[in-house]
Amino acid sequence: MSSFLLKRLGWTVVVLWGVMTLTFLIAYAVPGDPARMMAGPGASAATIASIHHQLGLDQPIWSQYLQYCLRLLHGNFGISFLRKVPVLPAILQRAPVTALVAVGGVVFELVIGIPVGVLAAMRPSSIWDRLATVFALLGLSAPSFWLGLFLLYYLAFVLGWFPLGGIGSPLVYYLILPCLTVGLNGAAWYSRMLRSTMLDILRAPFMQMARAKGLPGRILLTRHVLPNVIIPIITMVGMDFGYFLGGVLIIEVVFGLPGIGQQAWQAIQVLDIPMIMGTVIFAALAIVLMNILVDLSYAIFDPRVRL
Amino acid sequence: MATEPHEMTAFDAEELAAAEQTPTWRILLGSLAHNVPALVSALVILALAAIAILAPQIAPHNPDLGYLNGLTAQGSPVPPGPHFLLGTDENGRDVLSRMIYGARVSLTIGILANGAAILIGVLVGMVSAYFGGWIETVLMRLTDIVMAFPILLLAIALIAVTGPSMVNIIMVISLIYWVNIARIVHGMVLSLKEREFVTATRTLGVGPWRILFKHILPHLSSAIIVYGSLGVASTILLEASLSYIGIGVPVPTPSWGNMISEGQAMYQVAPWLMIFPGIALVVTVLAFNLVGDWLRDALDPMQEGH
Amino acid sequence: MSDFALEVQDLKVHFAIRGGFGRQVGAVRAVDGVSLQLRAGETLGVAGESGCGKSTLARAILQIVPPTAGRIVLGDLDVTRVRGLELGRLRKRLQMIFQDANDSLNPRVKVGAAIEEALMLAGVPTAERPHRVQELLRTVGLPYAFARRYPHELSGGQRQRVGIARALAVGPELLVCDEPVSALDVSVRAQIINLFQDLQEQLGLGYVFISHDLAVLRQISHRILVMYLGHVVEEAGNPQIYDHPLHPYTQALIGSVPHADPRVNRARARIRLQGEVPSPSHPPGGCPFHPRCPLARDVCRSEPPPLREAAPGHRVACHFAREGIWMGGELDGHGTA
């Protein structure tokens, strides 16, 4: 394999290790006694002591750290305080809903963001460009949860076009508003990035050369602009994935969708640390995976990077 | 004895005339005058700052007090009217007063958290780029690791561990947001340290810390100013999201975020509870974004026009 | 121990070329065995085209780049690989003037502040500094009012004067000047060269003066060193090297400098060099100049010529230095050493 990919993979391993360590440190710093929290308020000292032993809390920190890493690598993310079930399976069970919202969000992000970005780049400083900028700025400045509530209120409550949250059948009906909200937020950022990337491409010397040759617009677009813009389009989806994921999770809370985010939110209300930490690790893994995919797509689409 | 004073040749005079420039702040103000959105935004920000500082003086009512006439006969919130300009919430508290105090919270957290993030980020970026070696590797890898986390979730986890309070929120947000600035500063300092004046200053024997703070840092001022503004937009949004989720500013202290989450339950009878704080957020964040963008455009060509 | 202010012995500066995984796969031999001597109060000019290693030589002397081999001796102090406090002491005695005064001064720092910083390093107490700044500015011919200005508010020549003032602030006895006038307008050049000479007279400074412009070196140098591809090819006193250059490369360089006497000009054969300077990472075997040399024979390709004394105070690195190719000029008194 090329040294590029090797380096990236080596990189990823280091980052994953860092994620594990950081989450361990955070979890370790929790004030209060997790054993007590697990046992409940009325537990006896003996029960707490035995839970201590079970959880390995009476061991030195480096030993706990090692066990923590081993457990993680085996897919054991701990047990939720709230529901007394293993964390990872609970997360995986809810993952499909979140994934649907995420995918739908990306679809809307691209469907709205690409045309807006491209149009703004093709006619810079025109009225379209101005409008696109306004759209982007508003989209970036509005908190996504408020946007969701707004849409929920007007399109679902006042106008009755969509259900008031939750999930049911047909799935699409229930998912349109949440995905649209996530997508709008993402499209705001995406359209701006795409606009500046396209402007760079359009102003590049090779484009001027192609125009000087007198090539018609269509060929310019398909043969010259498109191949160069494909890579940024794909990679930019991955770039703000971390932020995107956070948006998805909040939207689940707003619309009451039974996904990972709503579960995390419930965990937050009662400070269910294992569930919170498990969600954080899971999300970090998802982001790292996304970055790998982005790098792979570089390797596939960018002829300069040899696979 | 000295050599004769340098006499100006024709070339010298020309060069000198071309080189004299108007001071930075005058150029900035001139550009601001032509940029209506940025001008309005700057005024908005000033107004918000005034509101936040003068909150006790301008709030028409006590934000924590539930007024008897704040609830209708059925016990539901009063819509916007002459007495309560923006209506009341489910406890009979005046929305406008709460929003004014909420401005205080949001701005304080936003500005302080961003300021701290810039401090950390600039330091990390400068040190890692200038000293290189293992210091650079460790710091940049740390940056990558923090960037691997979804911002919101990491903030949630950290606050869950430390407990929600204004101080903790500021600390947590700054511990997350420094990475962006660190990356950018790192890149800038990497190229700056190759400049000849750095070599010359080092040859004179000036120590690395003095070079970093007295020679390199001034070149970073534009980036710092731009991020000072754009960053506040992000930190305000983050705090609002955290408060909305319930792990931000603790009730009863009003924050625009937690006002929205509290008002959400009553959206059918009192939609203004979630609409007004949201508008406040949009306007504030938009203002900081516009000012930040204007600063970025205005300061950029001037970077080394000097 | 030594009666030279600065002596460099067989200095080599090689930069490693790294392949994958950081292995060294080659070396750029920027400076490949250079020796020089400088007496106090004198100027040694270093000539050569770009890429010959003169800038690297300058930087190595000042420890800006680390020498790979050889010795650098300042008076009686071996300063070849000094660090820390010793490096600080070196830099108080030896300073550098850079080529592009625009970039060697920090655009965000006022001129007076830059000089004050150097004074601070020299241990001048705070109260005295403004006075010293004024003195230094006056020494280089600038009014005190300039202390408040930023570099971009000065002309090129004025900036270079500030650079000189700054270097002088730490009180060095030697200055290494790396093409200090090359970036200046011709009219300003003469003024700055005069300044250098005046300072040398007043303060007894020694200079290592690097320039690709032989006309400039002619004005200011007592001795001149000619470099090619990291080697010294000729070294002689100032009038001698112009009147009787022995190395073909030197002859080519000087041939391109117009002589004041038009008869000499007409009498000179123009030596045209073929080809380009080879890359310092793949130097030719034997004599480094042989691919371009009109005199090259077999021995030049296989054996590098040593630097030999061809006349008192005049050294050449060439197998056939005796055979001049001047038409009209005479090579008298130059036999074998």
Could you describe the 3D structure shown?
The complex is a heterotrimer of chains A (307), B (306) and C (337). With 307 residues, chain A is mainly alpha-helical. Chain A has 13 helices and no strands. Chain A has helices at 3-28, 34-39, 45-55, 61-73, 87-122, 127-141, 144-158, 171-203, 205-212, 217-239, 241-255, 260-269, 273-301. Chain A is flat and about 85 Å long. Chain A starts with a helix and ends in a 6-residue tail after the last helix. By secondary structure, chain B is mainly alpha-helical. Chain B has one domain (34-53, 94-303): MetI-like (MetI-like fold). Chain B is built from 13 helices and no strands. Chain B has helices at residues 10-19, 24-34, 36-53, 55-58, 95-131, 133-147, 151-162, 166-192, 196-204, 208-216, 221-245, 256-264, 272-299. The radius of gyration of chain B is 25 Å and the shape is elongated. With 337 residues, chain C is an alpha/beta fold. Chain C has a domain at 243-337. Helix content of chain C is 32%, strand content 22%. Chain C has helices at residues 54-61, 84-93, 101-104, 111-121, 129-139, 156-169, 186-203, 214-220, 238-243, 248-255, 262-267, 298-302; strands at 6-18, 24-38, 43-47, 69-74, 77-78, 94-97, 174-178, 206-210, 223-228, 231-237, 308-311, 314-316. In chain C, the strands form two sheets. An eight-stranded mixed sheet of chain C has the order 6-7-8-3-9-10-12-11, with helices on both faces. In chain C, strands 2-1-4-5 form a four-stranded antiparallel sheet. In chain C, a hairpin with a 2-residue loop joins strand 9 (223-228) and strand 10 (231-237). In chain C, helix 4 (111-121) packs parallel to helix 6 (156-169). Chain C starts with 5 loop residues before the first strand and ends in a 21-residue tail after the last strand. Chains in contact: A-B, B-C. At the A-B interface, helix 1, helix 6, helix 7, helix 11 and helix 12 of A face helix 6, helix 7, helix 11, helix 12 and helix 13 of B.
